[in-house]
Design brief:
Blueprint lengths: L7 H11 L25 H17 L3
Length: 63
């Protein structure tokens, strides 16, 4: 848990100061809750499914 709110831009700037240029964060996305299994493990497949659905929705929209 964070002690205070932080913006994605501030987080990206913080990381950029501390890592090599090729390791900089390109995108920060906030979510309300990380999907977890009953044993408390992060359900990465749910995150991947969410990302794939977003990409599909973006590619299907007229430009």
């Amino acid at each position: 848990m964070l002690k205070s709110e932080i913006t994605p831009e501030a987080l990206m700037a913080y990381v950029a100061q501390r890592v090599a240029p090729h390791k900089k964060i390109r995108l920060v996305e906030t979510i309300d809750e990380i999907p977890k299994s009953a044993s408390g493990k992060i359900l990465r497949r749910k995150l991947v499914e969410r990302e794939r659905a977003k990409i599909t929705a973006d590619s299907g929209s007229p430009s």
